[in-house]
Design brief:
The chain is an alpha/beta fold. The chain has a single domain, classed as 3-Layer(aba) Sandwich (Oxidized Rhodanese, domain 1). 26% of the residues lie in helices and 13% in strands.
């Protein structure tokens, strides 16, 4: 992701809102409580829901499981006028760092 900054999990405060682009089944297994969920497959139709992030102080932080999908989405979001960054290591790194997570079944995991 050389064109976009990588933000380490350790640099993200527990109240930082970020975009999680994983699919619904992945989200249900475990997600950060403050994340906004728009699956990558729905992003082009739902990008308007992110308008409040356009003028935010700092970049819109984007995550998936480990970064592969984010690499494809960041250039597109930048073309839409967003300042963007990657959550380094994705939700896998978030979970491994013991950061807050919620899950549909009550036991968060990242599959």
């Amino acid at each position: 992701m050389s064109d976009f900054p990588d933000v380490p999990v350790s640099d993200v405060s527990d109240d930082t809102t970020f975009l999680d682009i994983r699919e619904q089944d992945e989200w249900d297994l475990g997600h950060a409580p403050q994340a906004v969920h728009i699956p990558m497959s729905e992003l082009s139709d739902r990008v308007g829901e992110l308008s409040s992030f356009r003028d935010a102080d700092g970049p819109l932080l984007v995550t998936c499981k480990s970064g592969g999908r984010v690499a494809r989405v960041l250039p597109w979001l930048a073309d839409q006028g967003f300042e963007v960054a990657n959550l380094e290591g994705g939700m896998t790194a978030w979970h491994e760092a013991g950061r807050p997570m919620e899950a549909k079944n009550g036991t968060p995991t990242v599959a």
